[in-house]
Amino acid sequence: MALTSGLGGQLSIDLGALARNWRALDRVSAGALTAAVVKADAYGMGITMASKALHAAGARFFFVATPDEGMAVRAAVPDAHIFVLNGLYPGAANLYVRQNLMPVISSVAMLEEWLAKCVERNEAYPSAFHFDTGMNRLGFRLNEASVVRQQIETLGYAPQMVMSHLACADTPNHEKNRTQLALFSSVLNQFPGIPASLANSAGLMSGRDYHFQMVRPGIALYGGRAVNGRKNPMAAVATLHVPILQVVEARTGESVGYGATYSLSRNSRLAIIAHGYADGFLRSLSGTNMRPGGKVVIRGKACPVIGRISMDTTIVDITELGSDLPSPGEGAEVLGNLIGADDQADAAGTIGYEILTSLKQGRYNRSYVGDGNLPE
Q1: Which of 164, 222, 226, 235 is most buried by its number of CB atoms within 10 A?
Q2: Does domain 31-221 have CATH number 3.20.20.10?
């Protein structure tokens, strides 16, 4: 693929695919509201454009991690219902009120500060309550449920939602899923009539028992694999092509890259591409003589990364292309139809989440295709 605009990498975001993914998940979760998780710059896709496209597709509830992300969604989608997963930052209640952001409250200290603001303003500002059912991350402890209930009953306050988060939903048969479901159901007994939410992308795909009144897909919206061991049904949203800077010949026995961690076992042709760890191409995708690294697609063929990935460049073995050699300026596909985020993640020993969210640091010419409001 020849690069036709700009001199750097070309990151293309398919808003139509994003919208179709949300609609597909919404059909699966019929009977529950389908929210959209747009934290981390919408998993690297761009929070402003992604939020607009998801809203056009039908999403009305959005989850972010921080108040700044919440304000970005508010500016893009004025009528959105926005939950802040990191909760209420100390001393920031006025900001949440001004921006109409709902903190996901996860501690007694947060709750007391939020209720104090409600009393001060004589208004029951909305929030969600998060209970930890097995991650030891954010959340009220299970034994705090009765204390929380008593505090809100005293003031006549009710949260918009009670929620928790699954630790092992990407492995549907994991016993911890059923344990967390049972614990969450026991918490809900303390809050009768309050809507509930438990399922992320993988939980949504694991069965209706996890759906409750709202599901919160994230990675699946952006085309990533949510459930291990299954074919990923979601459409890819991001494609990334970067320019080839130089094609060189190297001889048997010569080393490649920093640290000389890769030595050539044959006379080879190498392409140096303008893409490195400063662009979000993880250094763990480096290829050594002891283990393979990532791949990029050049002229329709997957070519291996060899040597350590540098800050600004990566070296790719294109010997198997034979005489069909690329020229400087041609594009190498890092993400696309032939190689996806999960393929790169598998090679890096990580997850597609990290590959996609790393895109936000790259030096790309970002473009959007589709309007996010395509017909069914």
Answers
A1: 222
A2: yes
Kindly indicate the confidence band of residue 2, based on its pLDDT and cuts at 50, 70 and 90. very low
CB 295 within 8 A of CB 347: yes
Catalytic one among 222, 258, 262, 364? 258
Q: Which residue has the tokens 């993400």?
A: 335
CA–CA distance, 94 with 100 (Å, rounded to integer): 10
Q: pTM surpassing 0.90?
A: yes
Distance CA 148, CA 140 (A): 9
251 is in an annotated binding site: no
CATH superfamily of the 238-369 domain: Lyase, Ornithine Decarboxylase; Chain A, domain 1 (2.40.37.10)
Q: Which two tokens stand for residue 67?
A: 């108040």
Does 258 participate in catalysis according to the annotation?
Answer: yes
Neighbours of 119 (CB within 10 A): 12
Domain chopping of the chain, boundaries: 31-221, 238-369
pLDDT at position 109 over 90: yes
Active-site residue, selected from the candidate residues 39, 52, 295, 360: 39
Residues 6 or more apart whose Cβ sits within 8 Å of residue 296: 273, 302, 303, 305, 314, 316, 332, 333, 334, 339
